[in-house]
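PROTOCOL LOG
Step 1. Enter all chains and additional molecules of the complex.
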Amino acid sequence: MSILGIDEITYGAADLDTCRRFFADWGLKLVQDADQRLVFESLNGCRVLVADPAHASLPAAIEDGPTLREVVWGVSDTETMSVLRERMMRKPGYVDSGTRIGCTDPNGFAVRFQVSVKRALQVRGTPANTWDQRPRVDEPGTIYERATPIEVGHVVFFVPDLAATEAFYAELGFVASDRYPGRGAFMRCAPRGGHHDLFLLSTPDGKRGLNHVAFTVRDIHEVFGGGLAVSRCGWETQLGPGRHPISSAYFWYFRNPAGGLIEYYADEDELTEAWVARDFEPGPTIFAEWAVDGGIDGHTRRQKGRQNDGKFLTDKPH
Ligand SMILES: [Fe+2]
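Step 2. Run joint prediction.
Step 3. Record the structure below.
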């Protein structure tokens, strides 16, 4: 029984022209463009679909406006599919096409599973030289001109009923990594793996919807290089770059014309069965150890909106 990660996500968004441009700038490859539907791929074959909101293929939306409509999780084998079929078949909205099964989660969102079609991929992040370990020898660190994301690493939803939604995913095999008790649950799709594949967030106003989708890149330098490139293309930073104390990952969030926020991230914690979920109080310093408000200007490569906008600090007359 092994759920591996996210194989495919589908957005419903009316402005396909803007979304086509955005996801190309984000570093994805457009592999299909027909019938009011765009299909993009990341490096390992993880698929990102954007379809007109009225497209017949789309499950129901959980909020108004452009948003995520479906997540397909990849599993290791048909035995896992059989286990999940047994666990899901009495759930609301159960569907089974033979190769893909799914249902509706307690948030009203369409969750699906298939045997993963992602490709095994050999890419190398830049090793960091620390005091005690020097893996990068006679090799300068990488500077990325843009990001080419490896895959969709996690999705984050606003959920009015946190307890029911966490219990639903736990029953399917997800494991809690950390929690904001009563307010949020970070979950990974298998006992061994990255810190979270799914984060469920409850707000006092009972909001339901998409918060963000995060794309895994190779290393911190690709977070920075990718963010600078997306910024140069004119897209707006929501927050970042920065670093999360929970998960330890570096992040950079942008606003996504297909719905919610979108994130580059790297260097998250890797967990095993031995990990004990921690409880945290939500707050700004637990969300971000540090973060750049408004982002970094892709041209000046300095904080956006600073007085010296348009010039490097080193351009100042002496
Ligand atoms: Fe995230």
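Step 4. Note key features.
Helices lie at 16-26, 78-88, 162-172, 220-232, 284-287.
The chain has a mean pLDDT of 95.
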